[in-house]
Design a protein that fits this description.
By secondary structure, the protein is of the alpha/beta class. Helix content is 18%, strand content 29%. It contains 2 helices and 7 strands; from the N terminus they run E-E-H-E-H-E-E-E-E. The strands form 2 sheets. The chain has a 5-stranded mixed β-sheet. A two-stranded antiparallel sheet has the order 1-2.
């Protein structure tokens, strides 16, 4: 287990967040998950920067708000508990197709 923002995460999750930080030049902020995806998205400020939702020490959601990213980092596919990704940019050209997560992954795109 590694630590990211004082949150114990699996190594793959922590590494993916660090890689996202390196790509964007800013740390990825954390938000506790409010019990369901609809509430998480409904109460979220879409003008904020890259963010991740966590629950029980696992990353379950990612939010990307960058106009200069054209593809998502491949290692987010290694996140075993990922359930949703929210993308708020028109620049993303490629979405991942291979995910380790056993959950159905919802991808929300806002242009």
């Amino acid at each position: 287990m590694k630590e990211y923002y004082s949150i114990q995460l699996e190594d793959e999750e922590a590494q993916a967040l660090l890689d996202i930080s390196l790509l964007t030049g800013e740390p990825v902020r954390s938000i506790p998950f409010p019990s369901d995806i609809d509430k998480a998205i409904e109460n979220f400020d879409f003008k904020s920067k890259e963010t991740f939702w966590y629950e029980n020490y696992h990353v379950i959601g990612l939010y990307f708000y960058r106009t200069d990213l054209i593809e998502l980092p491949e290692n987010i596919g290694e996140m075993s508990y990922l359930r949703f990704i929210v993308i708020n940019t028109s620049q993303i050209q490629t979405l991942l197709s291979n995910f380790k997560s056993p959950y159905q992954i919802y991808i929300f795109i806002y242009l």
